[in-house]
Amino acid sequence: MTAAAIECKSLTKYYGKARGIDGLDLRVEKGSTFGFLGPNGAGKTTTIRCLLGMLRANSGEAFVLGEKVRLDGAVLRRRIGYVAGEVKLYEKETGRWHIDYLSRFRGGHGALTDELIERLQFDSTRRVRELSKGNRQKLALILGMMHDPELLMLDEPTSGLDPLNQEVVFDIISERVAAGSTLFLSSHILSEVERVCSTVGIIREGRIVVEDRVDTLLKQRLRHLEVTFRDATGAEALESVPGIAEVQTLAPNKLSAKVRGDHVDDLLKCLALHSVEDMSLEHASLEDAFVDYYRSDEGGRQ
């Protein structure tokens, strides 16, 4: 088996008695696009900082691009493009100063620097204290990707950007992945993860609890149903179908519901007993699936 872009083996980090991550196992293949999801406090930031060698784990191992992660891993970090969720910059310095400063640590001017500045329409002559939140984010993206890294580790990469610049960032990310880079994306905007990631891992209380392809997760977890009958029909017409939940009456002859799991065949057999005028059955968004997963997990898996 070839070396993965990211691999964690029983990775554990505690802050005193407070849990960061606990026995986390994770593997992200090279060239893949991986979405890293979880509620606040689940361990996302701790995981990323351990993978970057910014924190020393209490136990377990982490490997990035085939190399064991160490606190002194400056050479390895040159192969990684990291954009933090909360960007810290030197307020009195210009964007160009930041670019030149970081380039010296990486051994030269980044191959994508000028292209990123142009495509993001960033004015590198202005001081950081003069920049809006969106322009600070542009600078963070340039610093994180200008050296054309093998691995992109992006935490909320489009925070503060307007929709047009978000589109530009998505295009750049897609191009880098097509050129062979690996994407590890952590974002609270689940539509972003759904758009650019093929695989998703959900972390809860410091452990990966779900890892699957995005399309499989959406297909298996949740669909939205809306059905219009020719005659008045009560909610009881659907409530006996396996996997049906949250049946609502929208009109005397119109019902909506959620369909969990692989129960479409059961649903169709039920509907065949009635006179149906119209219906729609749509896959839930990744956000719906994510919320549904946590809701069902808290009440006992369904």
> What fraction of residues sit in β-strands?
25-35%
Number of strands: 14
H and E string: EEEHEEHEHHHEHEHEEHEHEEHEH
Poorly predicted ranges: none
Question: What is the CA-atom radius of gyration, in angstroms?
Answer: 23 Å
Structural class: alpha/beta
Main sheet strand line-up: 6-7-8-3-9-10
Helix content: 25-40%
Number of domains: 2
CATH architecture of the largest domain: 3-Layer(aba) Sandwich
Protein topology:
Layout: E1 6-15, E2 18-28, E3 33-37, H1 44-51, E4 59-64, E5 67-68, H2 74-77, E6 80-83, H3 95-106, H4 113-119, H5 133-145, E7 151-155, H6 163-178, E8 182-186, H7 190-196, E9 199-204, E10 207-213, H8 214-221, E11 222-229, H9 236-239, E12 244-251, E13 254-260, H10 264-271, E14 276-283, H11 286-298
Parallel strand pairs: 3-8, 3-9, 6-7, 7-8
Antiparallel strand pairs: 1-2, 1-4, 4-5, 9-10, 11-13, 11-14, 12-13
Helix pairs in contact: 8-11
